[in-house]
Amino acid sequence: MDGAVRAPGRKVIAAGRVKTAVVFFAKFAVAATVCTVLFWLASPYYLTIIGHAVAAILNGVFGVGIDGITVTPEGILNTGTVLAFSVGERVAPIQPVALVMGIPTFVSLTLASPWPGAKRFAVVTLIGCVILVATHILYVVLVFRFAEAMQRSPQLPIMIVMLPFLLWIVLSYWRQIAAYFDESAPKETPPAQ
What we know:
By secondary structure, the protein is mostly helical. It is 66% helix and 8% strand. The chain has helices at 10-60, 97-112, 118-145, 147-152, 155-172, 174-181, and strands at 68-72, 82-87, 90-94.
């Protein structure tokens, strides 16, 4: 051909998508490793903050009478850390393994995603982390206050594990999702046959 530009074929497009996916997963693997290790190391401090917030809610709203909280770091990289609430002579411990994994998972997904600018990345990451922290507090309140009902209904722990992924999808791709549901946006019409 004499200098004509050829449109890329399907194989070229497919190869580009595969490359994009491989790069995303590689970035996610590195970010997840680093974020998870750092978050596990910081988990006793995070759980102390969560514990105090939960104690304030349980005392103020439900009148439970939490006397104090204890955070005991255990395991390699604090992976077995225990959060315990003291109520009189009773101690109610929980091991929030799934709880502390939401934030590093979400942050890793946002770090691996392409962003049009640092501001949007920062806003999405901040909003997601605030929602996750609030959810973690609510989860521990529910576990402490409604333990028997929670044992009969395992859906809430599953939701806690899935929430970082759902937040990432919604917050990262909000514009595309909103455009899809926007009724005023021009709709594509199928080609005439």
